[in-house]
């Protein structure tokens, strides 16, 4: 079979099918360089001193492959250098010649996740819920809460994650930024500045404080209320919230464990009539605000034997003091270790939270929302390196540096192709002898040359990356500073 080989010249024709894919057939510079590259590679392979068992299409195909390889390496580097800035952008635009400016979008997305976990922003909503405390019940089920709240099926397949637990409805620390014990001092000045009146009024001064001070004050308020102001604790066990102390219908009974100075001390004169009645105590405190809070009082008609739960109301507020005289206690005062009138100090927690019938509040997130909001189905957006809209390069726009690399890589490919062609026969018989072909040498040399060219190209791209250029510029600036330090100061003589 007579198969024509390289005749010494060629004539590239666009659309003739001489290239495998025709990526660059219509580009003018490719049409001009195709025959030049073919002649270059043939002569480097030994023509005309030896035959080159390749055809014109072989050189054109190798040329096309070399350009494509160059573009793949170039754009793979561009993706590595800009992927963080490209994620989320549209896939509809060709980025081959785009100037990409770094942005903070991926950092913003990351901070949103941290903000959501810390409760300071983000895109994962925090929800508030509560349990109504039941006497002698210590454990409360979040699964029961979710069912009662209308969550079904997939809504709670992954459950909830409790972020905070309160014995009172959550109130932002910023709402309590003013220190009530500071008067018109430092805290007052800060609070006034927040509302735009810093520097106005007697005793107020404006302080220019850094923002981290405000954050630290708010964190201090939250930590203070969590540790110092609460007489409770809790545990999160599986899907249950365990509260301490165990809720009770009675705040306390008059007895040896209930004396003046305790956290629930007896107070103010009360007229109890009837047995086991609930008596609305009249407002006796000068700083009170009406009536409404009630105490479950057990009495025999004349004497008080037990003070029970405090029901929510507006009559008594935090700090109010109610006095129950010793004479009204239905027992021997000495035996009860009550030597004088004892007092019931009303606390906010006493009115709302500690007793059965009160509530314990918590904030939570739904875990499936954390996952669902972290995954967005965006078929028209850049999500990974595979859909970054880079295409084959425009050969007309590749400079001489890039073209030189392409020529050398084309030669390596054609050398490999020639090796495979000559490998069909290990030797050729001639009169009284045979000629061994250099198939192995060609393939080995081509493999090494291709690897070296790829390494050289990648090194060049790494040296021109954004990070490398910034490091080089910083090094140059530092060297200039060292050099300028050796220049003596000018001496001016009047």
Strand order, sheet with most strands: 6-9-8-7
If you average the pLDDT, what whole number results?
75
Structural class: alpha+beta
- Poorly predicted spans: 179-186, 250-293, 309-314, 330-343, 345-353
Shape: elongated
Fold and architecture overview:
Strands 6-9-8-7 form a four-stranded antiparallel beta sheet. It folds into three domains: 28-83 and 395-481, no CATH class; 123-243 and 359-369, no CATH class; 250-347, no CATH class. A hairpin with a 4-residue loop joins strand 8 (294-299) and strand 9. Helix 1 packs across helix 9, helix 2 crosses helix 9 and helix 2 packs parallel to helix 10. It is of the alpha+beta class and 494 residues long. The protein has eleven helices and 14 strands. The chain has helices at residues 28-44, 56-86, 105-118, 142-148, 186-194, 211-227, 348-352, 367-374, 400-422, 439-463, 466-484; strands at residues 127-132, 139-141, 160-166, 233-237, 240-244, 252-253, 278-280, 294-299, 304-311, 321-324, 342-345, 359-366, 427-430, 433-436. The longest helix has 31 residues, at 56-86.
Gist?
The protein is of the alpha+beta class. It is 35% helix and 14% strand. It has helices spanning 28-44, 56-86, 105-118, 142-148, 186-194, 211-227, 348-352, 367-374, 400-422, 439-463, 466-484; strands at residues 127-132, 139-141, 160-166, 233-237, 240-244, 252-253, 278-280, 294-299, 304-311, 321-324, 342-345, 359-366, 427-430, 433-436.
